[in-house]
Amino acid sequence: MTSSASRYLPFRALGELSETRYWMYLLLLPSLVLILLVIAYPTLYGMAISFREMRLTRPGLDGWVGFKHYAAMWSDPVFWIALKNTVVWVTAAVVLELALGLLTATALNRDLPGTKIFAVLILLPYFLPNVVAGHMWALMLDPRLGVINDILVRMGVLQSYKAWFADPNAALAATILVEAWHGFPFFALLLLAGLKSIPEDLYKAAAVDGAGVAAQLRLITLPMLKTVIAAAVILRVISLVNSPDLLLILTGGGPGDATQVLSLYAFQTAYKEFNFGYASALSVVMFVILMIFAVAYIRMSRITKE
Amino acid sequence: MIESKRHRRLIANIATYTVLVSLSAFCIGPMVWMFLTSLKYEADIVTQTMQYIPSRITFDNYVAIWTQSGFPLLIGNSLVVTLLTVTICVVTGTLAAYAFSRFAFRGRDRLMLGYLVVRMFPAVMVIIPLYVVMRGVGLVDSRFGLALAYTSFLLPLFVWMLKGFFDSAPRELESAARIDGSTRLGAMVRIVVPLARNGLVASSVFIAIAAWNEFLFALMLTTGQGSRTWPVGLQLMVGEFQLPWAFWPPAASSASSRSSFSSLSSNEPWFRG
Amino acid sequence: MATLSIKDVRKSYGSVQVLHGVDIELEDGGFLVLLGPSGCGKSTLLNMIAGLDDTSGGDILIGGRSVVDLAPKDRNIAMVFQSYALYPTMSVARNIGFGLEMRGVGADKRKRAVEDAARLLQISHLLDRRPANLSGGQRQRVAMGRAIVRDPELFLFDEPLSNLDAKLRVEMRTEIKRLHERLGTSIVYVTHDQIEAMTLGTKVAVMKGGHIQQLADPRTVYERPANMFVASFIGSPAMNFLPGRLVRDANGVRFEASGVSIAMLAGKPAEISERPVILGMRPEELKVAARDQASVTGVIDVVEPTGPETMVTVQVGDRSVMARVPPRFAGQRNEAIFLAVDPASVNLFDPDTEQRIDI
């Protein structure tokens, strides 16, 4: 330890270099190169691919095709179904998750004995990998072996076992339920942090002024949580639109295209059909729609804040 | 008045516990069911009447998944990929986080924001061209290639997390070390990094778990036994074995450690994940 | 031990200039205090002497050697920080010896030097502890030990006492003064506390807005402040300012304002013309006097006994004037009060430039 710096010449030279003004750029260089290499370049390249024909199954097909893929998308019925499903799926899941998250956060925020244990249990689903969460629910919703069918039949809700993922409406509803189960702890944790940051004095002041529980919720809790909710919703929407994992595992987009969403459609176009050009065009369009939504949403939530 | 207030509080407490208990049941119920199923004999799973509590217990499912499905290989690949990812992130990310934390330079805030925005890119949008690029340089179906791909979304996260930990190590300590005879590099290695040790560990664990669980990149970028990770292996197994009942341990262990970690340390930026 | 020369040193961040051509000369063994409100550039200047900040222009010489291109480790200086900056993972002994360790001094020699420094600072019994287990005053002593053990050419202190409570601050102030007299090493000391500046410095540089307002020994800064900023920044309660006029009459030059008439100079020096000025008087220069000897007449507003003395706020014309009078002062609110002032102790300032006028 004493003088490792002087013992190793390279280290010493690097040490002298660290006293120059170039040091911070040298520190940034490795990560910057890596990020340019694995994100910036592929992203730009991906945009370029969307204007090209690229099918790995047919190497002969190659070359620039301009807006061909985008035009094809316009008349592709699956694209419009996927777009509609994306909106429905994301909206329903986020609303459900927000409601459950708010309920959980309020309950946890009362800090009753044992809260920590409940917090750990409730957080578990969020950290379960998509693959595992997906298969777990696939097992429970299985038409023959599913425990949920059994429970519902015993309760008299269902006459007989139901093949959840065979019925288009039931399939979409079931995937929304699974997603809500998987994602609501995210809202619970964020909202809990938000609740904890509201000063206790505000509630005391309100109580002294004669405000009841309902008035406190309306006048203090919700306004103070607005920013947190806005941030949580936008983060979740971005993450849901971008990740097809859960649907890929549960339904693969079926039955028919009943649970097909944009990210999954793009992924399958690339992964199954190797039609990289069209898949890239799909993901670019998805990205643009998402960005427009994000910017509009952030603008709007700022206006309501003021 | 006091009587009714106490009464109200009691009702509120009961309601709170009811909510917490039912939500906890909703959350862990599926996991418990998975666990119970994994202990059943095949015949007891495929029965006319559902067995809620297994009548007999067996570990055959675990033995089967370990011996018949190449599971050890999958776990091994996952370990290698995770280790490579963490190594790349720690080496390059620590330097970048330190630079962001300690130096004021033109465009710093914009660059940091850039690191964050990059994470908003849809995975599919990156995966497709990345596949083409990596195929060109022979990195498809390689554990190193997959780790490299993971740094695309884990490195920015690592840098942001670690910067927070570096920020909380006082600058004056570094100045003192430099006056005492260290170079900037020496002060960083001897003083700042040891101080941020816990943060370094926490950030590394965070990205290690993310890499361990990742599915989509792995599905696209691995094709053979040589590099396939366990989430992909599991997905493919579902076709071969119907349902592999005993797949949950590698996931559940990491999930439960993450979950307890997050609920106990309140200021960790886990939600960016 | 060495001299310090700061020559036309400038600093800017982008287009914002925070130091505008600073010049300071410090004699060998001197004690320079950089004094000013926060944001005046004093800490920036100190950091540039240390090499922790780059200079944007000018030169800094320690012992006649230009150091602007040297790294902090090569400047042969030692520094005591506001937060003490003790390495939390090392023992007190290793903290003190770290500078020697970095310079490759052998373990035996290092141990002796650390023990000597610890004895001097009376912290020998703390050498095995960790910084976290020390009180504020003890940490302060360790930080000073770390500085003196290296026997540098120049000590730098960055507001070293501001994290201590009032009692310890006085104690450590005395300690620093004793240490300086014993070691004789030149010191640059940054503070916003005017009492530290008065008690410790052989030279005080009062700074504001990146300019040096006055560079002089503490007595001069206190008695003959260069401008109204320096006058008001040093001294508590602050110097009284009264706007008025210089007038000439048969007996000489007088200062006149509502309720105030002070004979400044006998005779009629031709070079002094009648003009508006601002009069500055320290509260302790105002003495209670008989009516016929009074040069300031007013009405008592507030009387505040502090124990060793009593502060009286007096309404003079439309202005408030503070006087420091003996403890058993018997005046009451709304009573008339008559005060005398020694003309030699007052200062005159130009109302436009706020600079001192010498007459």
Automatic annotation (TrEMBL), chain A:
It holds the Pfam family BPD_transp_1. InterPro entries: MetI-like, MetI-like_sf. Residues 83-297 form the ABC transmembrane type-1 domain. Gene3D superfamilies: MetI-like. It is found in: Cell membrane. The chain crosses the membrane at residues 22-44, 89-108, 117-138, 170-195, 216-238, 276-298. The keyword Transport applies. The keyword tRNA-binding does not apply. It is a multi-pass membrane protein. Its main location: membrane. Keywords: Cell membrane, Membrane, Transmembrane, Transmembrane helix, Transport. PANTHER family: BLR7065 PROTEIN, SPERMIDINE_PUTRESCINE TRANSPORT SYSTEM PERMEASE PROTEIN. Belongs to the binding-protein-dependent transport system permease family. This is Carbohydrate ABC transporter membrane protein 1 (CUT1 family). It comes from Mesorhizobium tianshanense.
Automatic annotation (TrEMBL), chain B:
PROSITE patterns: ABC_TM1. The chain crosses the membrane at residues 12-36, 79-100, 112-132, 144-166, 187-212. GO terms for cellular component: plasma membrane. Coiled coil: none annotated. Residues 253-266 have a biased composition (Low complexity). Gene3D superfamilies: MetI-like. Its main location: membrane. Residues 75-273 form the ABC transmembrane type-1 domain. The keyword Transmembrane applies. It is found in: Cell membrane. Keywords: Cell membrane, Membrane, Transmembrane, Transmembrane helix, Transport. InterPro entries: BP-dep_ABC_trans_perm (IPR050901), MetI-like (IPR000515), MetI-like_sf (IPR035906). PANTHER family: INNER MEMBRANE ABC TRANSPORTER PERMEASE PROTEIN YCJP, MALTOSE TRANSPORT SYSTEM PERMEASE-RELATED. This is Carbohydrate ABC transporter membrane protein 2 (CUT1 family).
TrEMBL record, chain C:
One of its GO terms (biological process) is carbohydrate transport. Residues 4-234 form the ABC transporter domain. Transmembrane segments: none annotated. Keywords: ATP-binding, Nucleotide-binding, Transport. SMART domains: AAA (SM00382). It comes from the Bacteria. One of its GO terms (cellular component) is ATP-binding cassette (ABC) transporter complex, substrate-binding subunit-containing. PROSITE patterns: ABC_TRANSPORTER_1, ABC_TRANSPORTER_2. It is a peripheral membrane protein. GO terms for molecular function: ABC-type transporter activity; ATP binding; ATP hydrolysis activity. Its main location: membrane. InterPro entries: AAA+_ATPase (IPR003593), ABC_transporter-like_ATP-bd (IPR003439), ABC_transporter-like_CS (IPR017871), ABC_transpr_MalK-like (IPR015855), ABC_transpr_MalK/UgpC-like (IPR047641), Mo/tungstate-bd_C_term_dom (IPR008995), NA-bd_OB-fold (IPR012340), OB_MalK-like (IPR040582). It is found in: Cell inner membrane. Belongs to the ABC transporter superfamily. This is Carbohydrate ABC transporter ATP-binding protein (CUT1 family). It comes from Mesorhizobium tianshanense.
